[in-house]
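FORM 12-B: Structure-to-Sequence Request
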């Protein structure tokens, strides 16, 4: 099993400076079994209106192919192209990736959503792979992906 663990901070994106205003979030993504190359993935936060807030995780061996995640890439480039979380290798069939980020308390139960996009070479792009509303109701609850991702779990 492939597992990465890194800590990142999303606090600066919203201008919240005090660490006491944030809590650690564990994000776990498990890929479904599929045939083909390893997936490129972006995990990012949007507000209640669907406006981009922050990128918390990208997975892809060659950064130039992350542009194939077109919805995320468009928002990412408009926001200045800065990853506020962790970047790592591509993730393959049946593998898992885990990371921990500090998320401002202001994002909880306030309509913010963690979105996942995936793409696999010579396969279908999944712009709506998974979406998890950040809040108490979804804490620790696995959410099924719609393509290459089996489950995404956010816990704090």
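FORM 12-B RESPONSE
SEQUENCE OUT:
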């Amino acid at each position: 099993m492939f597992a990465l663990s890194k800590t990142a901070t999303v606090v600066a994106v919203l201008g919240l400076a005090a660490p006491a205003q944030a809590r650690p979030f564990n994000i776990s993504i498990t890929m479904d079994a599929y045939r083909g190359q390893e997936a490129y993935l972006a995990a990012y936060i949007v507000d209640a209106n669907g406006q981009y807030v922050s990128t918390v995780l990208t997975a892809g061996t060659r950064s130039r192919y992350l542009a194939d995640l077109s919805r995320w890439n468009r928002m990412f480039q408009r926001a200045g192209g800065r990853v506020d979380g962790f970047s790592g290798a591509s993730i393959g069939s049946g593998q898992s990736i885990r990371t921990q980020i500090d998320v401002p308390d202001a994002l909880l139960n306030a309509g913010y959503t963690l979105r996942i996009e995936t793409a696999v070479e010579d396969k279908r792009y999944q712009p709506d792979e998974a979406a998890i509303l950040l809040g108490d109701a979804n804490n620790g609850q696995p959410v099924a992906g719609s393509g290459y991702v089996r489950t995404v779990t956010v816990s704090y």
